[in-house]
Design a protein that fits this description.
Elements lengths: L7 E4 L5 H12 L3 E4 L4 H11 L2 E2 L8 H7 L6 E4 L13 H29 L2 E6 L12 H21 L4 E6 L7 H5 L1 H7 L7 H13 L4 E2 L5 H10 L1 H17 L3
Parallel strand pairs: 1-2, 1-4, 2-3, 4-5, 5-6, 6-7
Helix pairs in contact: 1-2, 1-8, 4-5, 9-10
């Protein structure tokens, strides 16, 4: 029997892409899934497909409604909703604020709502869709890169703070994934991410492998581990390499 048979799961940003793939995989494993998305029609379509419950709306405020829809409890929360947010330091304040709100604070608000119940019963699982940008960076996307670093830091903090109390945390850090977000990344995404892009179902597979092994860091692109080591061991060399990518992007007209 699946580990997730009968589990009650919330997936945010699940109207398509990685979120929909996670929702489908949890449902296939026997879980009851609350499908959240800002787009009401997409939320309902995925929920109908998998036999889940649609809970459309802002990911920051979904926990209470979804918990009620799932019968009063949540076993797994997938903080998957995110904003690509391209731009440099000149990006509008509204762009930076929206990136912080969706990519970081939505995770904080969810944890705030879930942790009391999880800590009381000594069990709960928080899955954060971060991105390799949270470990490394992404050219042409300062708000995205900075807030994804924040999302990774928050997931890491949750894990180190509560793992001895039964809370399991997983940070998924893929590079390119064939989703609308990759398309939104524009020419930078085409240069950096598209050549090694994978399907959303591959990300779900990587997560389930990571959960089976109780691993915090989930790398659907295994090569990211080497990049992360190189960044830590030789930051100047790594920054020079990233700057070469930046210059190549600028030379192609951005």
């Amino acid at each position: 029997m699946s580990t997730f048979q009968g589990a009650r799961v919330i997936v945010t940003g699940a109207g398509g892409g990685i979120g929909a793939a996670l929702a489908r995989r949890f449902a296939a494993e026997g879980a009851r899934v609350a499908v959240n998305d800002l787009d009401r029609a997409r939320s309902r379509a995925v929920a109908d497909e998998i036999g889940g419950v649609p809970v459309p709306g802002d990911a920051s405020a979904v926990v209470e409604e979804a918990r009620e829809a799932l019968g009063g409890a949540v076993d797994v929360y997938c903080a998957n909703a995110g904003l690509a947010s391209p731009g440099d330091v000149s990006a509008d304040e509204e762009v930076w604020a929206a990136a912080w709100d969706v990519n970081v604070m939505a995770h904080v608000r969810a944890a705030r709502a879930l942790l009391p119940g999880w800590l009381e019963r000594g069990a709960g699982r928080f899955v954060s869709t971060v991105s390799a940008a949270g470990l490394l960076t992404m050219v042409g996307a300062a708000p995205y890169s900075v807030t994804k670093h924040g999302a990774y830091a928050f997931a890491e903090w949750l894990s180190l703070t509560y793992r001895h109390r039964g809370i399991k945390v997983h940070a998924i850090c893929p590079q390119g994934v064939r989703t609308d977000m990759l398309t939104a990344a524009g020419s930078a995404g085409e240069l950096v991410l598209a050549p090694t892009a994978i399907d959303p179902a591959d990300v779900a597979d990587a997560l389930f492998a990571g959960m089976a092994e109780d691993r915090f860091l989930v790398l659907p692109h295994p090569e990211v581990a080497g990049y992360y080591r190189a960044r830590a061991a030789g930051p100047e060399r790594w920054l020079d390499g990233m700057n070469r990518i930046q210059r190549t992007w600028e030379a192609t007209g951005r």
